[in-house]
Amino acid sequence: LRGPSGSGKTPLLNIVGGLESPSRGHVWVKGQNVVAMSEDKLARLRLSTMGFVFQNYNLLANFTALENVEAPMALAGQRGRKRRQAAEELLELVGLSDRADHYPTELSGGQQQRVAIARALANEPDILIGDEITGDLDSVTGFEVMDLVARLNHERGTTVVFVTHDPRMATYARRLIQIRDGQILSDL
Questions:
Q1: Beta strands in 30-150 (DSSP E)
Q2: Cβ of 79: how many Cβ atoms within 10 Å?
Q3: Rounded Cα gap, residues 3 and 1, in angstroms
């Protein structure tokens, strides 16, 4: 999803992820109408099917990188050693196995973003939803993050829906939806 600030990208992304309700219409995920779901059922669907990467990372300040990645797995009921091993593998996937015991304030912006991506992948989601995941990063780190996201799509088959206003990052998309003033201008 691409468009200028204030165009409606984030609200649309939040509707796709079931974080906001549309004023009309339906959103179907895995054959289920997200709009008609109870909050509990919707939370379970998000936990098992979707991974979210927010622009401001939303890492838990009192948790290490490893504990941040483990958190969604704990919510899903995964226990002990298996959870720890899976979190360690995800941090290795994003190139941060050597920073597992560091807290968010001890990590650079790019490292925090990678932890957020690892956390989003913790429950092996079918859909990865990213809101301006490179917005606060320098160009080199931004391209590294997008390379990682593209690799996840290619190697794991994870559907990736992301918002950007940066035309360079939009080149990673197989499908580009242009938005302005809450309206879809094009869908290529």
A1: 32-33, 50-53, 127-131
A2: 9
A3: 7
CA pair distance 173, 59, nearest whole angstrom: 26
Helices (H) and strands (E) in the chain, counts: 7, 7
* 68: amino acid identity, one letter: N
Give the orientation angle of helix 65-75 with respect to helix 109-120, to 10 degrees.
Answer: 20
Neighbours of 109 (CB within 10 A): 12
Query: Is the pLDDT reported for residue 149 higher than 90?
Result: no
Q: Give the three-class secondary structure for 165.
A: coil
The SS3 call for residue 111 is helix
Alpha-carbon dihedral of residues 46, 114, 9, 137, nearest 10 degrees?
170
Q: What is the pTM of this model?
A: 0.87
Strands 127-131 and 159-163 come out as parallel
